[in-house]
Amino acid sequence: LASERPVNVALLGAGTVGAEVGRVLIEKRDVYGRQLGRPLNVAGVVVRDTSKPREGIDAGLLTTDAAGLLDDPEVDIVVELLGVEQPAVDWMKQAMSNGKHVVTANKEVMAKHGPQLLALARENAVNLLFEASVGGGIPIIAPLRRDLLANDVSAISAIINGTTNYILTAMTREGADFADALKRAQELGYAEPDPANDVEGEDARYKLAILASLAFHAPVQRDDIYREGITKLTARDFRYAAELGYAIKLLALASRVDGGIQARVHPVLLPADAPLAKVDGVLNAIQVEGDLIGRVNFQGPGAGFPTTSAVIADVLAAAQSVIGGRPSAYVSEDAPANLVPMAELITRYYIRLTVVDQPGVLAQIAKLLGDAKISIASVIQKETHEASNTAELVIMTHEAREASVQDALKAVEKLPEVQEIGNFIRVEEQ
Ligand SMILES: NC(=O)c1ccc[n+]([C@@H]2O[C@H](COP(=O)([O-])OP(=O)(O)OC[C@H]3O[C@@H](n4cnc5c(N)ncnc54)[C@H](OP(=O)(O)O)[C@@H]3O)[C@@H](O)[C@H]2O)c1
């Protein structure tokens, strides 16, 4: 059937992100095909150097002929992962003019040309999706475009540059100076050899331009956003801030104020118990305030491999548009979920019991637990009631099987020295 032909995807770029996206699309082809009800096929991958091997991507797919793919009527979706402004913009325009959906991770392109490209997408009735352009793997663009659309957004506060957040976290924790923290970030690959774009707040400014434009439904230009980087911060600032009860973070802020929109990127003192003050290391977080929802937080890894998650989600959404009319939720009725019985849960337990206050009781309880292969991590004896000659014990176990714990507790309860099992609570270490 002609309508059952695969959905064809062309990749522009196979660098850090592109090669991963290509590899995963190929590796998980069957899974995605099942989700869509139609095969999802990588039709070609545009690179500069076709002789360089790309793991998981057949060399036969590599090409330097972008036009060949952009003008191919069989190609449905173009994924732009070039990491440069040009030819990315021209190729995206060409793809959309040819009726193809476009997915991009390019913050520079979306910050500078977003409104114009979105208009072109609308004109050509195609999708332009750019989830990975802000916050790496964190879903934030789709929520702003869809889930939060009923709101009047009043403010966005975001940590959207992992490099600077890593440096600031190191300065906070170790009392390091900026230069030392930067050097270490570079050694660990969290900062580029030329870090200016990140540490001067330029990268965050691109991303804020994208977020603010979507949130306020009006083009917010990068150059209109006030910007200050983190290079002037010293170890002393962090010490004094901590003494005053504050953390120092580089925030990207946009809000509606009297007379318009205020947008700025600069270091701020943030109350130490504020949610964003606790976002550490290379994590990103975006907080959105809307009239209906109140405050909502999105948090997660802002770069690296998780970016692939965002790019492929966009590819799948575009593929759904190609196929048309199919619901995006995927719950297969053919494959049972196989829920594992509660009895097979393995976790740690907190057990509180009231026992007669006499020697040897704990040993008896420990034996019953031991017989059931439940090992005790710690025991504390709480209040002793002299009148009733009882004591309260709190036992923390190591990991054990739920069924064993339930059985052992039944045996423990039968001990004449045990008055009651006050409670047992499962422990979740996260
Ligand atoms: N890295 C991340 O964690 C991350 C996170 C979020 C978003 N992003 C965004 O993702 C995009 C891609 O980043 P990246 O780190 O993957 O970039 P990259 O490693 O520099 O890869 C760029 C790729 O594009 C190809 N390319 C560049 N110019 C070309 C041209 N004129 N013709 C043909 N091919 C060309 C390169 O080909 P060759 O390999 O042959 O040189 C390379 O495969 C960027 O927009 C970036 O901002 C990255």
What report would you give on this structure?
The chain has 14 helices and 17 strands. It is 35% helix and 27% strand. α5 packs parallel to α10 and α7 crosses α8 (178-187). The radius of gyration is 28 Å and the shape is globular. It is α/β, with parallel strands linked by helices. It has helices at residues 16-27, 29-36, 66-70, 88-97, 107-123, 141-147, 162-174, 178-187, 196-199, 202-216, 235-243, 306-323, 361-371, 402-414, and strands at residues 7-12, 40-46, 62-63, 77-80, 101-104, 128-129, 153-159, 226-227, 246-257, 260-271, 283-290, 294-301, 346-356, 376-385, 390-397, 400-401, 418-427. NADP nicotinamide-adenine-dinucleotide phosphate binds at residues 13-18, 46-49, 52, 81-84, 87, 105-107, 132, 136, 303-304, 307.
Topology:
Layout: E1 7-12, H1 16-27, H2 29-36, E2 40-46, E3 62-63, H3 66-70, E4 77-80, H4 88-97, E5 101-104, H5 107-123, E6 128-129, H6 141-147, E7 153-159, H7 162-174, H8 178-187, H9 196-199, H10 202-216, E8 226-227, H11 235-243, E9 246-257, E10 260-271, E11 283-290, E12 294-301, H12 306-323, E13 346-356, H13 361-371, E14 376-385, E15 390-397, E16 400-401, H14 402-414, E17 418-427
Parallel strand pairs: 1-2, 1-4, 2-3, 4-5, 5-6, 8-10
Antiparallel strand pairs: 7-9, 7-11, 9-10, 11-12, 13-15, 13-16, 13-17, 14-15
Helix pairs in contact: 1-12, 4-5, 5-10, 7-8, 13-14
NADP nicotinamide-adenine-dinucleotide phosphate is lined by residues 13-18, 46-49, 52, 81-84, 87, 105-107, 132, 136, 303-304, 307.
